[in-house]
Specification:
By secondary structure, the protein is α/β, with parallel strands linked by helices. Helix content is 38%, strand content 25%. The chain is built from ten helices and 13 strands. The strands form three sheets. It has a seven-stranded mixed sheet with strand order 4-3-2-5-6-13-12, sandwiched between helices. The chain has a four-stranded mixed sheet with strand order 1-11-8-7. The protein has a two-stranded antiparallel ribbon with strand order 9-10. The longest helix has 17 residues, at 201-217. The radius of gyration is 20 Å and the shape is globular. The N and C termini lie far apart (40 Å). Bound molecules: N,N,N-trimethyl-histidine. N,N,N-trimethyl-histidine binds at residues 41, 49, 150-152, 154-155, 195, 202, 205, 269, 271.
Length: 309
Amino acid sequence: MTLAIKSKLFQEIIEGLQANPASISPKFFYDELGSSLFQAITHLEEYYPTRVERGIMQSKLAQITEAIAAIDVIVEIGAGNCEKVRPLLDSILPKQYRALDISLEFLETSLANLHHDYPAIDMQAIAADITQELLFPDLQDQKILFFYPGSSIGNFTPPEALRLFSNLARECHGSGGLLIGVDLVKDIQVLERAYNDSLGVTAAFNLNALRHLNHLIGSNFSIPDWEHYAFFNQTLDRIEMHLRAQSDQLVSWPGGHRQFHVGEMIHTENSYKYSKATFRKMLQEAGFTKVTTWTDLESSFLVCFAGFK
Ligand code: AVJ
């Protein structure tokens, strides 16, 4: 990381810690341990999104491939373990695969594993903060498929998601498109269980943000003094994750500090859930002119291809 990027992140973190209520961006979950903890979450019985999305991708692969038609390059956003793209690589055989993620260490190992199995595809790992604008000047003349699986779009507010879709639609230049997975609104108990698993992996994942921050900015968060709290906000259709102080405490970092009182919370994540109709509308509003959707038998999760007529 360059010094300029580092100091910008530092500033963003401190602004969040000083805000009322305090907040930490979910992108700070993903250091190497956090990425592994998220991997573990995807194996949990309670955490259905990864499993259900994989099922849709497998059972609807022929239709999905037909909708996408011919493309040159797959650009995966938030690629993580680079495993979710495998069925697409098999069915589409693109010339190029580009994996974007916030955590480069984890991404590079994942990409090396993938490249081993697909030596003919040109592959590139790119550290990218997708809360910033994305530009692909060197792909101007290529047909791009943006692949954004895993429902990570849920971390954005709906207006932020719309802005990202508009950015991607523009970078498509009228061909290719966006294949995206999103979690749907459902029974509140099913939703809340997915973020309050019985093994406490999600709690560890949430708390790890404090450990990561301690490394990044030299803060002295005491992890045992915080607890995981997650619930579904029915007004805003989102899971909210917070860390709650279990005692009064002073947290310091070079150049600053903050007093937290018992019960005070740090907001660490929103995970928005959508209806099929709302999500489709957003994709169209962003400039895609043809949207095709697939779901599972329980309408638990949605896979969409947004392209151009
Ligand atoms: C990676 C953002 C899709 O919101 O479900 C999992 C992250 N947080 N358990 C999600 C997460 C807690 C996950 N996304």
